[in-house]
């Protein structure tokens, strides 16, 4: 229903800072009343689902939720009451239980005055034998880069059952940073980097007004997990690359604010990690690899700075700190939970074990001649980074210390646990902005495959290496990395997966553009894996 504007709520704008009111569009976000951001659902089980909405009233408002088997709500199947409170930015979440497995449901929220939210659609997970299940995979949706056409394309499909978002749902940067120039129609608020609780809430409010993201949430349940940009770039347990305590306050305060806003605005529970059972077909594990247990990322520049013999310094780094078994992405407690879950899933006869997590797991080395690809006229910092990556490649080191490549002992523990449990492992990833189809192995023995998704809008290698044709770069990367079966480094989009008992087919969908709001011209390319083979099919 249309958003009504109540000028009295301008009094509450102080929580966002008075300067925000001078920005076009912000006053509407701050003063909207009623159901302001549609509906969403998430974290389904066989008999329950979490439902979300946002309602702005004059204070705490009790909403009634209705769940029905039909869009006309003539066959009510469940529901309940929930309070939309200013203390939670007027967001309301309700877990509805007592539903039947493997069913699509319709839901809506009703305010005390009788006004209704838009109608959402969701579904419960199946039990027993399952012949087919469809999943959409998303990551890295930076609004100022362009339109969310990937969301629009997926929202219109009739063959998907569940959406998975593995992070960078929004970006914390201020205007003019990433991207350098914002398209006016895709600009975001606040007009500075998000640091405080009010900042993170306002950024969510902007993103969640996007019509294609709103439609995706309205049509499908979602399993979601944050990555770094919902907090700050390249964060870890005790800090972030993009956080300065001297000007932005203590990291724990910023982390707590970001976490709170995420849990308010997303259809998620407060569980840091969780698993979801799709009958006997698959178990989806949703770990947390970013901010609660992650050791600080290693840095090539600190290894090489001031060293007369760079090769010797990198060799010592490779054989020492990089291989340290103490370095972790999840922490000991979560690792134990995941390894037990993998074992239990396989032992129960579940066909596929799916790890839906934030960062690329496959090993990716840069070509040794990477520095030769540095664009002419590139900044000195960029040139230095490219030289460092090339030196690391010659030392046998991967180029991205923020991915699983920066934590090889932790990755080996996980792959060993999957192999010992006799899992058929499917890893879903995001973060890198590029598309990767990786085969995962341990000691030359196949363990599973990885579908690493490209971004919804955030730029990939095409922006950083414009001097080389994307196809040529892809060829160089595949030649350098034996486990890399497929890559695309220049197009935006999402991944869909079709699960059956005997095979998984993953397809990368590439949008023709993000500069205009359209899904015309979408192209796709897929890879399959047969049950028991743990490597991509060659036929």
Automatic annotation (TrEMBL):
Pfam families: PhoD, PhoD_N. CDD domains: MPP_PhoD. Residues 37-124 form the Phospholipase D N-terminal domain. It comes from the Bacteria. Residues 1-27 form the signal peptide. Keywords: Signal. This is Alkaline phosphatase D family protein. It comes from Novosphingobium mangrovi.
């Amino acid at each position: 229903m249309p958003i009504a504007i109540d000028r009295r709520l301008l009094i509450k704008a102080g929580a966002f800072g008075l300067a925000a009111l001078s920005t076009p569009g912000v006053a509407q976000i701050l003063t909207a009343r009623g159901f302001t951001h549609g509906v969403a659902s998430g974290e389904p089980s066989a008999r329950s689902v979490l439902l979300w909405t946002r309602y702005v009233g004059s204070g705490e408002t009790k909403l009634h939720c209705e769940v029905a088997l039909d869009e006309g709500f003539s066959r009510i199947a469940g529901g309940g009451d929930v309070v939309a409170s200013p203390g939670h930015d007027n967001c309301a979440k309700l877990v509805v239980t007592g539903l039947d497995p493997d069913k699509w449901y319709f839901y809506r929220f009703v305010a005390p005055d009788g006004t209704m939210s838009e109608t959402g659609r969701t579904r419960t997970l199946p039990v027993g034998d399952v012949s087919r299940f469809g999943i959409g995979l998303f990551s890295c949706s930076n609004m100022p880069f362009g339109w969310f056409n990937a969301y629009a394309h997926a929202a219109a499909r009739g063959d998907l059952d569940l959406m998975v978002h593995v992070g960078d749902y929004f970006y914390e940067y201020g205007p003019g940073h990433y991207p350098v120039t914002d398209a006016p129609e895709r600009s975001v608020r606040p007009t500075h980097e998000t640091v405080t609780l009010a900042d993170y809430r306002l950024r969510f409010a902007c993103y969640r007004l996007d019509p294609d993201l709103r439609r995706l949430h309205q049509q499908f349940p979602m399993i979601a997990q944050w990555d770094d940009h919902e907090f700050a770039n390249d964060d870890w347990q005790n800090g972030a690359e993009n956080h300065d305590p001297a000007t932005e306050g203590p990291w724990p305060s910023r982390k707590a604010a970001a976490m709170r806003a995420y849990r308010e605005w997303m259809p998620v529970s407060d569980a840091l990690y969780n698993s979801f059972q799709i009958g006997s077909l698959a178990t989806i594990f949703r770990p947390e690899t970013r901010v609660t247990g992650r050791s600080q990322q290693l840095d090539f520049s600190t290894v090489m700075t001031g060293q007369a013999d760079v090769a010797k310094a990198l060799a010592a780094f490779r054989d020492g700190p990089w291989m340290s078994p103490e370095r972790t992405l999840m922490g000991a407690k979560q690792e134990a939970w995941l390894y037990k879950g993998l074992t239990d899933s396989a032992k129960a006869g579940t066909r596929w074990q799916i790890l839906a997590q934030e960062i690329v797991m496959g090993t990716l080395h840069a070509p040794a001649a990477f520095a030769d690809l540095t664009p002419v006229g590139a900044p000195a910092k960029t040139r230095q980074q490219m030289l460092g990556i090339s030196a690391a490649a010659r030392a046998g080191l991967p180029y991205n210390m923020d991915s699983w490549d920066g934590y090889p002992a932790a990755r080996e523990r996980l792959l060993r646990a999957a192999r010992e449990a006799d899992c058929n492992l499917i890893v879903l990833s995001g973060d890198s902005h590029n598309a990767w189809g990786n085969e995962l192995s341990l000691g030359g023995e196949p363990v599973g495959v990885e579908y690493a998704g490209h971004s919804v809008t955030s730029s990939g290698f095409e922006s950083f290496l414009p001097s080389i044709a994307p196809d040529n770069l892809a060829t160089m990367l595949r030649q350098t990395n034996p486990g890399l079966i497929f890559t695309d480094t220049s197009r935006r989009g999402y991944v869909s997966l079709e699960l059956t008992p005997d095979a998984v087919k993953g397809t990368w969908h590439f949008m023709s553009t993000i500069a205009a709001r359209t899904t015309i011209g979408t192209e796709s390319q897929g890879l399959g894996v047969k049950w028991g083979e743990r490597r991509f099919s060659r036929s």
